[in-house]
């Protein structure tokens, strides 16, 4: 499954580079034309970046799941962009990680992406 990302400070890109998965920035596309997982940073008091909001306004119908980075210093607003996007687009939160993520985060994220992609493929076969 396509993984698209936004990374203001580089933490999301650094995290994804450790996963061994294929990914590309949302800035490389005007809009998505197939299902994708979004991985984004969180800004301010738990918001998604404007670039993500604008991209999803054009491509949200293809969004299948979301993951977000954040800083635990923000307490309840940690990686809250995932909560906002999930609620707005009615998709599951795949994962939340702090800053550039830990080795454990990378492993867990890969497993969740794999399981999610398998379920999505099975759903297509059953239709």
Automatic annotation (TrEMBL):
GO molecular function: FMN binding
Pfam entry (one): Flavodoxin_NdrI
Assigned protein family: Belongs to the NrdI family.
Function: Probably involved in ribonucleotide reductase function.
NCBIfam families: nrdI (TIGR00333)
Name by which UniProt lists this protein: Protein NrdI
Lineage: Bacteria, Bacillati, Bacillota, Bacilli, Bacillales
């Amino acid at each position: 499954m396509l993984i698209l990302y936004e990374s203001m400070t580089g933490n999301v890109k650094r995290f994804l580079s450790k996963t061994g998965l294929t990914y590309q920035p949302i800035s490389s596309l005007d809009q998505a034309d197939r299902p994708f997982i979004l991985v984004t940073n969180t800004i301010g008091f738990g918001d998604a970046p404007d670039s993500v909001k604008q991209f999803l306004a054009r491509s949200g119908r293809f969004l299948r799941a979301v993951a977000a980075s954040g800083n635990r210093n923000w307490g309840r607003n940690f990686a809250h962009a995932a909560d906002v996007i999930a609620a707005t687009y009615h998709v599951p939160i795949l994962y939340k990680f702090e800053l550039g993520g830990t080795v454990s985060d990378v492993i867990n994220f890969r497993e969740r992406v794999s399981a999610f992609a398998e379920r999505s493929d099975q759903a297509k076969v059953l239709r």
